[in-house]
Amino acid sequence: MGQTIGQLEKLWKKPILRVVGLMSGTSADGMDAALVEITGSGLNTKVKTTGFVSLPYPDAIRAEILRLASGTEGGSRDLCLFHFLLGQLGLEACLAVCEAAGVAPSEIDLVGSHGQTLYHLPAAEPYAGRQVRGTLQLGEASVIAEGLGCPVVSDFRVRDFAAGGQGAPLVPYSEYLIYRREDKTVALQNIGGIGNLTLLPKGGAPEDTLAFDTGPGNMVMDQLTERITGGKQRYDADGALAAQGTFSPELLEWLLSDPWLRLPPPKSTGREVYNAAYVDALIARSLEIGLSSVDILATATRFTAECIGIAVRDFCSVAPDLLIVGGGGSRNPTLMAYIREVLRVPVLRNEDLGLDSDAKEAVAFAILANECIQGQCNNMPSVTGASHPVVMGKISL
Fold this sequence. Notes:
Number of helices: 14
CATH architecture of the largest domain: 2-Layer Sandwich
Number of strands: 12
Shape: globular
Helix content: 25-40%
Strand content: 15-25%
CATH class of the largest domain: Alpha Beta
CATH superfamily of the largest domain: ATPase, nucleotide binding domain
Order of helices and strands: HEEEHHEEHEHHEEEHHHHHEHEHHE
Radius of gyration: 20 Å
């Protein structure tokens, strides 16, 4: 116990911590690792990103993630092996970002690892005679702790979940620390596999922050692209395929009839909804209408933009002065053009502010890890619906 406390005391006394944040998202395209220097905590947090890498998953690993995330495949043996495999991949990403930044692994003070969400059920369902809700993120943190010799904070979502929250989204905590403005209301839209929106009212306190999932981000577009290209492309690079088509108002109306889009926040969603079966139904409806492949993809791209429009118009308590888009979707010019058509506010990318869209979520988990070891509550009940603030994250030493 004394040795354990001693490890944390060393971190508490250091003015600057070198922290690696790890993120593996719903797109299941790879492991992101950001190396940051953090000073302070809470509202006094200062962050400087010094390195970033994204390690694409080999086809076999990505296929396994998608198989296990379907909810109908895999048993305890698969989950056991995947848990430790992802821990090893997390360690490899940590070593890769250290190499890229020219930092020795022994100089890393802390790691914050999101893991891979395999299933997320924020609404209770019948199970074994009870009504149960749950969320599952895997990726054994002890593998990383052993490899680097430093504490690792992981499995963030479950503590908020236990307090009645949805355990999502979590990035708004770091967004409040980094992006809040006294003179402007800022909206931040992340477009990963799932889209999520954060609203930071000008001069607002943490409890004024609003954030929630907006619906599919890249997830549906990515699945369609893989099918259109026979698996040769995982995503629509530069929105080039969608740009060849025209979105169908009839199919778009069908997509927008999704009742989830009208649910008020807090709300979150994932691959449990916008999965292969969803895309099957989308394609079947498209064929009834007589659409080409590129028209289907163009409509799915427009759908992501319209979901963001609904979120801003219907659920934001105050109209944003600007929207900052991050995540992989921000590199899709066709999608960005649709977003600008749908919204009547200035739309920027993180890069327009000198920030890295790709690194944003990994940086967030570095910040959340720092808050955890400092004993700071790092959820936002106004966002997740939790009954009270909690310290999220499990510490592996």
